[in-house]
Write a structure and sequence with these properties.
With about 210 residues, this protein is α+β, with helices and mostly antiparallel strands. About 45% of the residues lie in helices and about 15% in strands. It contains eight helices and seven strands. The strands form three sheets. The protein has a three-stranded antiparallel sheet with strand order 1-2-5. Strands 3-4 form a two-stranded antiparallel ribbon. The radius of gyration is 40 Å and the shape is rod-shaped.
């Protein structure tokens, strides 16, 4: 069975009659393949059966090609009809729900529709809010870095003036208001060239800004 035998022929675009395939030969005995409307002047095939009347469009519509597949493809190609059907399907789909204007995701109108749309807004990669989220993240990062730099500088100033851990603890309490229960673990930090940074990291972990 050829591929074209499996393809259903669309009805006549003019009168809606069934279509049929046929073959013919040219004067030079070349074989041609065609598809035509079944309706004739005396035999119109309507939805209610055979009606003894001529084709309403009197179309005798047909296409003929040297390849059967071409004849079938051209007959079944209905760009205007396909576009209208696609628009109908789109409108029917939209009347049953809503959609994201930025990415096209669709949501059915049901009890969870509102919550799904709200959740989607916060996740949609194409939504303008993502630019604001990105800017907020950048500013928060800059603020965190500024706070860290400021705290590290204050810790360094304290460490320069206070030579022992007890003196550093006291200075942290006096100058930064950090209680003993927060600073009691700094004994575990080695007093080396990384002491200031490690102490700053520890204080940040404890929520000190």
């Amino acid at each position: 069975m050829s591929n074209t035998e499996k393809v259903e022929l669309a009805p006549c675009p003019f009168c809606g009659s069934d279509a049929e395939k046929y073959t013919e030969h040219t004067p030079y005995n070349a074989k041609l393949y065609g598809v035509s409307c079944k309706a004739t002047d005396s035999d119109y095939h309507g939805e209610d059966g055979v009606i003894d009347d001529w084709c309403p469009a009197n179309c005798g519509e047909h296409v003929t090609f040297s390849k059967e597949s071409d004849a079938v493809d051209v007959w079944n190609t209905r760009p205007i009809e396909d576009a209208l059907n696609a628009r109908i399907a789109e409108l029917e789909r939209k009347t049953k729900g809503t959609y994201c204007a930025y990415c096209g995701d669709e949501f059915l109108f049901d009890e969870e529709c509102a919550s799904k749309v709200t959740e989607h807004i916060y996740k949609c990669p194409e939504h303008p809010m993502r630019d604001k989220d990105k800017r907020i993240a950048e500013l928060e990062q800059q603020l965190a870095e500024a706070k860290r730099a400021n705290l590290e500088q204050r810790v360094e100033d304290i460490c320069v003036g206070a030579k022992t851990l007890d003196a550093i603890k006291f200075a942290l309490w006096m100058r930064l208001g950090i209680p003993d229960e927060v600073t009691q673990e700094i004994e575990h930090l080695e007093q080396d060239e990384m002491f200031t940074k490690n102490l700053t990291n520890y204080l940040i972990e404890q929520g000190v800004e």
